[in-house]
Amino acid sequence: MVQRTSFDTILENFYNRIEKDEKFFNYYNVDINDAKIIATQRATNYLIESLNDLSSLSNIEVDFSDYDEEI
After folding, report:
1. Are the CB atoms for 29 and 18 separated by under 8 Å?
2. Tens digit of pLDDT at every position of the chain (71 positions)
3. Would you kindly state where each structural domain of the chain is located, as residue ranges?
4. Angle at CA 70, nearest 5°, toward 32 and 45?
């Protein structure tokens, strides 16, 4: 059986970390809603970059290239 972790689960962990970073939410003096949008975009991009990096490793038996951003 294939085990899947939703992007939301991983993004929530990212949000919990940056929530403690006061500088992030003062990013270009944007309001909290815009900061959340920026956080989501950045976290998603970081996650996809990481999955792509992991997919390029030859000694890993997990297929990290088979992901669905919608789950």
Report:
1. no
2. 667 788 888 889 888 888 787 776 666 677 878 878 888 898 899 999 988 888 888 888 877 777 777 76
3. 1-71
4. 55
